[in-house]
Amino acid sequence: MRRLITCVGAGVVLYIGLVIAQGGGAPAKAKAATPEIPYDSVPNFFKLPASLYMGEGIGVATNSKGHVFVFTRSGETRLLEFDQNGAFVKEFGVGSYGFAFAHAVRVDKYDNVWAVDEGTNVITKFSPEGKILMVLGKRPDPLDQLSLLPGAGTYSGANKPYSFHRETDVAWDAQDNIFVTDGYSDSRVVKYDKTGRFVKSVGTRGNGPMQFSTPHALAVDASGLVYVADRGNSRIHVLNNDLTAKAMYDNVGAPWAICISQGPHQYLYSSNSFGSGSDWRQAETTGEVYKMELDGKVLGRFGRAGKALKEFSSIHQMDCRNPNELYVAEITAWRVQKILLHPEKMQTNN
Amino acid sequence: MMRFARRVRKDQAYVLIFLAAAIAGGASLGAQAVPDISYDANADFLTLPPNTFLGEVAGVATNSKGHLFVYTRTGHAVATLGDERTFYHGGSRLFQFDQAGKFVKEIGQGTYAMNFAQQVRVDPQDNVWIVDSGSNMVVKFDADGRLQFVLGRKPENIGVRPGPGMPSDGKPPAEPPAGRGAGPEGGRGGGGRGNAVPGIGVPGDSFNRPADVAWDRAGNVYVADGFGANSRIAKFNKDADFQKSWGQTGSGPGQFNKIRGIAIDNAGNIYVADAGNNRIQVFDGNMNYKSEIKNIGTPQAICISGGATQYLYTSNSNDPESMEHGEIYKLRLNGQVVGKFGKAGKMAREFGMVNAIDCRSDTNLVLGEVWNWRAQRVTLR
């Protein structure tokens, strides 16, 4: 068990088992026959600075000057030095790679301070000044341990009125009703009124009518129609304001991001994003953004997959308040690009 | 728990194989007398700000001004518990020091990709590149530390749900799905699995434990990918667009078993540290196989010096469970060994799991040590 804990860089969730594993002791045979030694305990010996608190007291040792070293499991595991009167002197190894779960501290005859940490499998030797002089042991490669932690969820289909499961987008109509695509782990569109009261929810996972496979984005036009980017099915659903089916556009690739421009003549933009941003077999067939009329007529496209300027690596959201001035956020290029469209320079084939 | 025990045995098996291979390599070394190169060393030349510590030093590299960049595993990777998933960040930091070893600044604080430092390199324009084998990413910063571009993508979350809590009942948890970060936008990594050819990976920048990065004279980028499921070299143009990849898992020419480093000489030849096969393979600029260099142990870090007459350095680093080996070889580019220096250990002048060599100058080297949490200056005489 201990090895398990030490192996995980962020083992916070795991140490309960260790506490349980430390059992109680057996009664001492000599207790009844041995006289008691009188003793006192010095109250409030350690003077901790404000905002510094002791955690589990795990290790304690003194040096030749009588300074006291305390190795404690606080929010972080910390190594604290106090003088012979209990006044705080300094802290050792703040944020050290070797501190995760304290186990012991010892001071050698040169007053070097050795910290034994069972969370990292590392023993750190500090000079009296707190400089790291040597490390023993090797903190395990956390990547080998990641599979032991909670991971990816699955489709829940829970369809609860006021709980989402990895929801993806939000939009509003002219009456301020609220529409939500929900999402990766549910697969539905939810409508609330402007006060946040649940009105309706439609959709299950699948590829049939009124089914979605990762509804990833949505937009509402001025007349109240709801456009849902059904990414996994490579189609855009158009829903009436009461979330009944109206139309379907399935000729613009996988809609990762959609938006509708403002103004008297609204346009619909949809990004057939280079989804992985890294599997370049997809680059030939993805990366472009489509400009459409609201009725689904495709007016044009721009962009291609790539990481250079003017290329799109994996668009995740777009803003098109102004139809010719777009902002696009890309996952795998770590950037947002401002795009200026010049439709007046378009060359038409017919 | 059983599952974990199995895992440990497997690791031990790897270690045994590794040791056997290393011993075999060492035995063949005995056949030829390799001269010792005398050297001075300074393992304590960096000045850090208060309460800042180096952890495992995975990468070291100098720029044209002599500033040193250190990419180190320090602090902790932090997991954030979400509703259904666990996210992680942190765990590594990139520091810049001046010629005298004085701390200049930190670069990329809190960057999404900095999870498990693997390497840092400085290109001819003084851009600073980090390779992170935790996020499976390569990040390019300019000389001032501004983000230029990234290659690869970190898995969205830790990829497997083993069931409620830890498997404390002795029963193995469910088999994890392939790769980490499985999820609608995180279903990546694990490249090489499910492919007909092991280690060939996915064309593009889906890295699996990438090890190193290098550039040709045109500025094309070569990523050594890597020592996980992938065994390939991936090439990108200067805009980071994918060009091509080569390699698969194996022991033949053009095949790799745990790639640990890559370096390119002035003529454009590409040197790949094929650690699992105890050799450095040499390719031309189109990755056509030319030759292999053996009898240098297990190349865990390689470097080609600057200047007109270039030398190749390779470290036969100790593995974490032994203090054997650790020597660094100096070779001519044709593979002829000039000499060797150093041995494994924890004292000054000794080398602990060298993971990086900076050899901008062919006599003044900087080593990055994983075991000893330090950078060490070495001056060859």
Describe this structure in words.
The complex is a heterodimer of chains A (350) and B (381). With 350 residues, chain A is mainly β. Chain A has helices at residues 2-7, 16-21, and strands spanning 56-62, 68-73, 77-82, 88-92, 102-107, 113-117, 122-126, 132-136, 167-172, 178-182, 188-192, 198-202, 204-205, 211-212, 215-220, 226-230, 235-239, 245-249, 255-260, 267-272, 289-293, 298-302, 315-322, 325-330, 335-340. In chain A, strands 1-2-3-4 form a four-stranded antiparallel β-sheet, with no helix packed on it. In chain A, a hairpin with a 5-residue loop joins strand 5 and strand 6 (113-117). With 381 residues, chain B is mostly beta strands. Chain B has one helix at residues 2-29, and strands at 39-42, 56-62, 68-73, 78-81, 86-89, 92-97, 103-107, 117-122, 128-132, 137-141, 147-151, 210-215, 221-225, 232-236, 242-246, 248-249, 255-256, 259-264, 270-274, 279-283, 289-293, 301-304, 311-315, 328-332, 337-341, 354-358, 364-369, 374-380. In chain B, strand 2 and strand 3 (68-73) form a beta hairpin. At the A-B interface, strand 8 of A face helix 1, strand 4 and strand 11 of B.
User: Count of helices of chain A?
Assistant: 2
**What is the averaged pLDDT score of chain A?**
88
Instruction: Give me the oligomer status.
Output: heterodimer
H-E order of chain A: HHEEEEEEEEEEEEEEEEEEEEEEEEE
What class, by secondary structure content of chain B? mainly beta
Helix content of chain A: under 10%
Output the helix-strand order of chain B.
HEEEEEEEEEEEEEEEEEEEEEEEEEEEE
Q: How much of the polypeptide of chain B forms β-strand, as a percent range?
A: 35-45%
Low-confidence stretches of chain A: 1-23
Q: How would you sum up the major sheet of chain A?
A: 4 strands, antiparallel
Largest interface: A-B, 57 and 70 residues
| Major beta sheet, strand line-up of chain B | 1-28-27-26
Terminal CA distance of chain B:
53 Å
Number of strands of chain B: 28
Decide which structural class fits the backbone of chain A: mainly beta
Instruction: Please give the share of residues in helix of chain B.
Output: under 10%
| Integer-rounded radius of gyration of chain A | 31 Å
Strand order of the largest sheet of chain A: 1-2-3-4
**Would you tell me the overall average pLDDT of chain B?**
85
Number of helices of chain B: 1
Low-confidence residue ranges of chain B: 1-31, 161-195
